[in-house]
């Protein structure tokens, strides 16, 4: 039996370009789907409805991510704080539209490439390993307008060109890569994921197929440049429970879990469509446009590791009596679990569910695992001196890390990285707000974009520094 986390375990934090960089229209950057997505608590409903225009409309909406937290200009200050915490890795994303402003440009934007090279070099100067997500909810807007998003097969080749460009530029400096962030949100038609409005189930699964092919092509490019490069897929994982032992609820849970938690991973890790998905397509009348050689490509270029976000579990019931009492979640919810408490945003807190996720994924796939997102969104209230006592966040993370350690030492899971979400406060993807904070670092900015943008350490900053320094063995209060 091992004793705790392996030597060289990658502790760090995670962010996304569209939620912290700002500078949305400078140095040649084009617009992305994130740039035209309004902020506010109705963001997800508005996006799902497709009623907002594919243009920026300041007369109706606010767009907090346009300025983000100005990481674009302040990255050196922020990376220095990550280094002070002891980060071993920093998960970031590259905005496709900084490299190819329209997504289909003939030549890349050198200013965008130079910016990311500077960020990468700054990380390496502080001995922080970059982990780069190629596409994190920021498809160039022009690809929606011109091609209709990822249901169009033309995006495969455009993404391949983008991947080739960034991999050729950075492969000597960046070992760890992820292709599509939370790819499985495309199962139910997330605009962020597949950049489509008014999508049908046919569109959703065609878009996912196109992303699977694009991901395999990126993996192929990476491995041809350097076989040592590590390319991972990334999905949401929500441990699922049946509300009770009623076989109908257990079957409903199984059906929901396999299409949401496993389908995309099955294709990207195992390299083929699972039989349950093929049967589902047949029953739903879904006919994928699969070009010659694409299934062979999926089989030949599977990912090296599996990464996932974990925030909460979900409870499933088909009993009408349970449907009125629901919980919220990361793009979806379930019925309320009577054994769990919830965050201020209604996301149920379930540390044991993370251990179950690790066990289930490792037993199914047998590849190394990377927890690329986990954390507590909460309202943090600083005192007059900007001291922030976020003991509730420490509590949340402590419980989850303790369950990770059990998965490693008791269950034998090969876990090699943990990057809590929003290691510095940034604009929330689900609500477009700053008030839903995750970070170890407080950024003085409100939902309307007012504030100094000054950075302040929260109590959790020193606590996480202690966790990293002891390789996860000291989780006690500071």
CATH architecture: Alpha-Beta Barrel
Mean pLDDT: 95
CATH topology description: TIM Barrel
Enumerate the spans where pLDDT stays under 50 for 5 or more consecutive residues: none
Q: Between the first and last Cα atoms, what is the distance in angstroms?
A: 29 Å
User: Within the largest sheet, what's the order of strands?
Assistant: 1-2-3-4-5-7-11-12
Instruction: State which percent range the strand residues make up.
Output: 5-15%
How many domains, in number, for the residues? Answer: 1
Main sheet record = 8 strands, parallel, barrel
Shape annotation: globular
Order of helices and strands: EHHHEHHEHHEHHEEHHHEEEEHEHEEEH
Helix fraction, binned, reads 25-40%
Structural class: alpha/beta
CATH class descriptor name: Alpha Beta
What is the CATH homologous superfamily assignment? Glycosidases
Number of helices: 15
Radius of gyration: 21 Å
Number of DSSP strand runs: 14
Protein name: Glycoside hydrolase family 1 protein
GO biological process, one term: carbohydrate catabolic process
Family: Belongs to the glycosyl hydrolase 1 family.
GO cellular component, one term: cytosol
């Amino acid at each position: 039996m091992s004793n705790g986390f392996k030597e060289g375990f990658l502790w760090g934090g995670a962010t996304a370009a569209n939620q912290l960089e700002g500078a949305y229209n400078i140095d040649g950057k084009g617009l992305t789907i994130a740039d035209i997505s309004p902020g506010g608590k109705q963001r997800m409903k508005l996006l799902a409805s497709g009623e907002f225009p594919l243009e920026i409309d300041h007369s109706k909406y606010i767009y907090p991510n346009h300025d983000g937290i100005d990481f674009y200009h302040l990255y050196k200050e922020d990376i220095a704080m990550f280094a002070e915490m002891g980060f071993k890795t920093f998960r970031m994303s590259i905005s496709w539209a900084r490299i190819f402003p329209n997504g289909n440009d003939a030549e890349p934007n050198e200013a965008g490439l130079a910016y990311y090279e500077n960020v990468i070099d700054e990380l390496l100067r502080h001995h922080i390993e970059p982990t780069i997500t190629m596409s994190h909810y920021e498809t160039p807007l022009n690809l929606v307008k011109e091609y209709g998003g990822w249901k169009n097969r033309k995006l495969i080749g455009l993404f391949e060109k983008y991947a080739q460009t960034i991999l050729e530029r950075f492969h000597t400096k960046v070992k760890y890569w992820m292709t599509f962030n939370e790819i499985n949100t495309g199962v139910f038609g997330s605009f962020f994921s597949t950049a489509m409005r008014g999508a049908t189930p046919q569109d959703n699964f065609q878009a996912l197929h196109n992303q699977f092919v694009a991901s395999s092509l990126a993996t192929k490019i990476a491995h041809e440049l350097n076989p040592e490069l590590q390319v991972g897929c990334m999905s949401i994982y929500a441990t699922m429970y049946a509300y009770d032992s009623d076989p109908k609820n257990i079957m409903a849970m199984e059906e929901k879990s396999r299409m949401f938690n496993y389908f995309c991973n099955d294709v990207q890790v195992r390299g083929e469509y699972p039989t349950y998905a093929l049967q589902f397509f047949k029953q739903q009348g879904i006919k994928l446009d699969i070009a010659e050689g694409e299934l062979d490509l999926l089989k030949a270029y599977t990912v090296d590791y599996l990464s996932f976000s974990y925030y909460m579990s979900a409870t499933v019931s088909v009993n009408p009596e349970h449907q009125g009492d629901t919980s919220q979640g990361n793009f979806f919810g379930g019925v309320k679990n009577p054994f769990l408490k919830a965050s201020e945003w209604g996301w149920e807190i379930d540390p044991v569910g993370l251990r179950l996720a690790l066990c289930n994924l490792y037993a199914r796939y047998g590849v190394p695992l990377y927890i690329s997102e986990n954390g507590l969104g909460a309202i943090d209230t600083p005192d007059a001196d900007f001291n922030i006592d976020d003991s509730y966040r420490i509590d949340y993370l402590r419980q989850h890390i303790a369950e990770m350690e059990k998965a490693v030492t008791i269950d034998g899971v090969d876990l090699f990285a943990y990057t809590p979400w929003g290691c510095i406060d940034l604009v929330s993807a689900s609500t477009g707000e700053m008030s839903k904070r995750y970070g170890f670092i407080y950024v003085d900015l409100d939902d309307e974009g007012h504030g100094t943008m000054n950075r302040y350490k929260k109590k959790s900053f020193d606590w996480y520094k202690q966790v990293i320094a002891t390789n996860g063995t000291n989780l006690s209060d500071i």
